[in-house]
Amino acid sequence: MLLRKTAFAAGVFAAALTGASAAYAQTEIQWWHAMGGRLGEILQGQVDQFNASQKDYKVVATNKGNYSETLNAGVAAFRAKQQPHLLQVYEVGTASMMAAKGAVKPVYEVMNEGGFPFDPKNYLSAVTSYYSTLDGRMLSFPYNSSTTVMYVNKDLFKKAGVDTEKLPRTWPEVGAALDKLKAAGVECPMTTSWQSWAHLENFSAYHNLPFATKANGMNGMDAELAFNGQYQIRHIDNMGKWSKEGKFIYGGRRNEAAARFRSGDCAIMVESSAGYAGVKNEAKFDFAITNLPYYDDVPDAPLNTMIGGASVWVMAGHSAQEYKAVATFLNFLSSPEMQADWHQKTGYLPITPASYELTKKQGFYEKNPGTDIAIIQMTGKAPTDNSKGLRLGSFDQIRTIIDEELEGVWAGQKTAKVALDNAVARGNELLRRFERANK
Amino acid sequence: MEKRVVFRQRLLPFLLVTPQLIITAIFFLWPASQALYQSFLIEDAFGLSSEFVWFENFENLFSDRLYLESFKTTAVFSISVTVLSLGMALVLAVMADRVIKGTNVYRTLLIWPYAVAPAIVGVLWLFLFNPSIGLVAFWLKQTGYNWNHVLNGGQAMTLVVFAAAWKQISYNFLFFLAGLQAIPKSLIEAAAIDGAGPSRRFWTIIFPLLSPTTFFLLVVNIVYAFFDTFGIIHAVTKGGPGKATETLVYKVFSDGFVSLDLGGSAAQSVVLMVIVISLTVVQFRYIERRVHY
């Protein structure tokens, strides 16, 4: 009896001891992210895999709402000195994060100190250039990158007698398809999400037109917006006409339109390549993915499109031990297997050539036609100053301004020229303000 | 009529109001002074660098034509919300006051919406009226009416007004109902015996006797429409289409908490504070005189 009691007590003591020591040795890393729904589950899966793969570190991922809310939570936490180690920030917030020198710790530093060789050449140049300094040092860790593509509902195309073998490649061809779709009584011939990103930012890059001066802001904070050129005006004007004729149905400022495409209402949707997971999951019709349309009378079109999505920033103010944990985790995420898995499940780009090759080798693109459109469209040609990326302060607000002005065009209250001129003028005021606040 | 109570001791009255003063200081004076200070700064989002600029944030605001338009939007929004929610609540309260069977059920159901968070109210209404998936939008389309609040500014405004008013009806209802029950039945019976019909009884007896309640609710509702509605607007329209539903408080919210322009947002909240203080002063000085206690 006594023996049993002693043995029991010893057992408890031992358990307490090992439990305590395990808890002490583990370094915990906080990661605030903006991936909800299915994407959030996939992200959590990666984190669980990392935590199970070793014993020294533990990553705790927390969803903080959408991109703006996550950034906001990070900023507020930094002001209160409670910042997480990792913060996922959308591409629009890149300039703000880069300007916040005391708030972030550059990823290349973290990786070097952590003892992991970090070669930006392992990433697609279109991705690294977006998140690197001019001398090529990577400031944030590219996590989820996508680009704009066009989704087509083949069933509706067939119903309207539009060729489903040779899908429209240019905007005039899209226009012809819209005529047929409308005539066949399709309620929503075309819709789009992220209008500024698709129809001005990527439109400009794809046609080798400047969205802003100074290489779209990459070469300096004194850049000015320049997306009110003749070709942009012509495109927005066409979209306005289609809206008036009921061929283009506006769905909302973010990706509200995607629900309408997934339900089978809309025949054409311009959306992020990352919309693939949702479309594949829900669409009860035959769909295809094709490149973003362009105008073939513009000399350099099609060039390449730019990325959207987000990167992970390491926040300043933590211990060396914790940064070591961060470096280990980021290194884990960069493996071709993790990258390929993320790419295939979500529709985000394979941002390392190694993961692209791996996906090819696994035969994923043959089984899922159209999923490589985005990567081909982004990397097909060498980017110019107009298509490397955007780095503009207060860009979230500028996008809102663009949204407001474009809504005026879709509603028929403004001409394309007036709207774009307004948007440029209003946006420039914000750029000047940002320049001043971040001197 | 003398409404004041006279205290003999000097200390006691101060002691009695101290808790209220402390609350006011912590939850109003301190944040308000912070906002005032912040409104003189141009600062980056992380608070790493800031520049004291005196009134430049205010100058920027008032030279912005769109900011001035947002005053008009706010006026339309606030007046519509206040009138609609007060009117509906009064009708419902008068009806519920007459109900004999199942009083509690009716009352509970009518009070219920007040317990719903503003953002959820917005989402509920959005589900009904979403042009792509909304049930009511679908019915409207069946009748041939083209509902698309995503592009039609008037429809967007109607939708946020309905959502914001709907939420406030419960609160108003509660106060109106209490007000109605405080009116002596004998007065109404006497009027009835004198031959006054229901509508005459309402307008000449009940409505004037309810005026203290109505006045109180008027103040509360205007403050509600000015300050508490950004959650609904954020969920339903995000201020769009264009700037059709961007009220002053929504702009404070979106500039400050979405775009992280803290100086500009603080300046706007100071402007808003001045407006609401002056509105309340006006209400107490001029409208209260016409209230019978």
From TrEMBL, chain A:
Keywords: Signal, Transport. The keyword Cytoplasm does not apply. CDD domains: PBP2_UgpB (cd14748). It is found in: Periplasm. Coiled coil: none annotated. The complex is composed of two ATP-binding proteins (UgpC), two transmembrane proteins (UgpA and UgpE) and a solute-binding protein (UgpB). Belongs to the bacterial solute-binding protein 1 family. This is sn-glycerol-3-phosphate-binding periplasmic protein UgpB. The lineage of its organism: Bacteria, Pseudomonadati, Pseudomonadota, Alphaproteobacteria, Rhodospirillales.
Automatic annotation (TrEMBL), chain B:
Keywords: Cell inner membrane, Cell membrane, Membrane, Transmembrane, Transmembrane helix, Transport. It holds the Pfam family BPD_transp_1. Gene3D superfamilies: MetI-like (1.10.3720.10). It is found in: Cell inner membrane; Cell membrane. It is a multi-pass membrane protein. Residues 71-283 form the ABC transmembrane type-1 domain. CDD domains: TM_PBP2. The keyword Oxidoreductase does not apply. Belongs to the binding-protein-dependent transport system permease family. This is sn-glycerol-3-phosphate transport system permease protein UgpA. It comes from Oceanibaculum pacificum. The lineage of its organism: Bacteria, Pseudomonadati, Pseudomonadota, Alphaproteobacteria, Rhodospirillales.
